[in-house]
Amino acid sequence: MPENLSVPLAALDAADRALVDGVLARQLRPLAKTITLIESQRDDHKARARAVLEALLPSTGRAMRVGISGVPGVGKSTFIEALGLYLIEQGLRVAVLAVDPSSSVTGGSILGDKTRMEQLSQNTAAFIRPSPSACSLGGVAEKTRETMLVCEAAGFDVVIVETVGVGQSETAVAGMTDIFCLLQLPNAGDDLQAIKKGIMEIADLIVINKADIDPSAAMRAKSQIKTALHMLRPMSPNWTVPVLTLSALKQDGIAEFWQQVMEYRAVLTKSGEFDAKRRHQALAWMWDMIDAGLRSRFRQHPQVKHELPQLAQAVEAGSTTPSAAALRLLGYMN
Amino acid sequence: MPENLSVPLAALDAADRALVDGVLARQLRPLAKTITLIESQRDDHKARARAVLEALLPSTGRAMRVGISGVPGVGKSTFIEALGLYLIEQGLRVAVLAVDPSSSVTGGSILGDKTRMEQLSQNTAAFIRPSPSACSLGGVAEKTRETMLVCEAAGFDVVIVETVGVGQSETAVAGMTDIFCLLQLPNAGDDLQAIKKGIMEIADLIVINKADIDPSAAMRAKSQIKTALHMLRPMSPNWTVPVLTLSALKQDGIAEFWQQVMEYRAVLTKSGEFDAKRRHQALAWMWDMIDAGLRSRFRQHPQVKHELPQLAQAVEAGSTTPSAAALRLLGYMN
């Protein structure tokens, strides 16, 4: 980027320089402190976080980013613990993050309690961080994405981002990871209605967990899901979404899962789609932030604030057209 | 709407008053002229169109709005002609519009040639209008939605909005109609992959056309589609998406199709969802226009115009973060 276009950064003072150096030296304390800085709502912290992030940026991008979703009870924690321990056995370092937009309200339903992944959390090659709290999904997702970059700079080879299906959180996680994996229960039939609209369509890999409990039900579910997937146009012309059955509890099928993730990376890297997806994600992220910023300014304009509720009501009631209302409100932004 | 919040309208001069009166009197010439005014890109025409629309507004909202989509070759024209003629037989007046975002480039692939619906286009109870040309899908959809309102004011009982699956055009059409119908070919198996991601999920009704050619293939397709639908959470708790087989060419199954549309309206009207959907659509429309307006102003800012290409490139290349780029560009909007 030409020098004259660089964003004016807060000066990287000694303390922040120490954070950057500590992260790059793969030290856990500076890592945790940097993430806390990123999650802070204070304006001075935001400026410092931006400066630290920019300094770390050249050291990011080397991890495999894996999104994991599935309804509560599907066994996400058990799966992530089994996967994490397997990866550590292979000599890899693993970071586990979460996007849980309900965490602001409820205090967080996932990863809030590290005892849920007891073995993994005690392993020095693993780093587990619960979902940030923020007022909006956009805020949560933004902070998680930046935390992911910090983890990459700290040399983690795999970053796992977990989410429960709250709001549009799956879309947000799919938009920040290289591969999005959906965990399913083996109950065939009605329970599969729990597959939320649109989620199966953004999955790159589907896992039927707890297959040991009722193997024949798991096979039925697999066949049903394959049929459903068959009706959807694939995201990539080079990748047919695999449906795997496994048991995270018995650590059965974890190696095969990871083999598929690696296969996915190899195929999409070869076709150029892997890098294209990352470039596209970064750009889409920028536009999301721009749109959010523009809308936030719009809503804060005193005249808009004053008239929006009544105009929205008039549009709903059909007494004015959406375009007339939009034009009137936009007029104040000149 | 309180008087002080009304949007300042262009004065309704004698010519425009004549247009309004003509539309309300159900005359086709003023109807066509009003639509031409709506489709015009000229600023003075836009102001006049807004005034005419506002004057027509109290007379809108009474038509059943039916969206029809399906890949080229599925038989949309034949289906719409058969449906239109059936509805006219029932004493109804039918308007057929189109949303084809490719029309700006190609001159339009649907409804451009009225001979495709020869009988319907010659019937005085029918009004067929090809897709407007505009530079963006948003523009095309906006004009079509406003045209739909004009048709309603002109007393049409049913407005059919046709689309081919270009870009997000199906979502746009589903967002302006009461019921969104997806036409499918009876080829089971591989050809069903042509269902675009997310389209089946917004369908309220699925029609397998050309069922006469291979009835057993049509039944297999029906069963496959039903299985796939079963995996999706329904849009309404009160409506299970029906899958119908029919032959538009032989005019076989058209009455059953319309019966399902009426059933849909009855069920959702009873539950309150019908009106709620329209209110929600109007509000979403307003926000779409606001977002588009904000982004357009943003893009026109000289500094943004100057720096956006390079910053976007830097974000794609990973040499700056999306947030830093967004913050820098948003800074110019103060």
Automatic annotation (TrEMBL), chains A, B:
Q: Which GO terms describe its molecular function?
A: GTP binding; GTPase activity
GO annotation, cellular component aspect: cytoplasm
InterPro entries referenced in this protein's UniProt entry, alphabetically: GTPase_ArgK (IPR005129), P-loop_NTPase (IPR027417)
Say which family it is in: Belongs to the SIMIBI class G3E GTPase family. ArgK/MeaB subfamily.
Q: What is this protein called?
A: Methylmalonyl Co-A mutase-associated GTPase MeaB
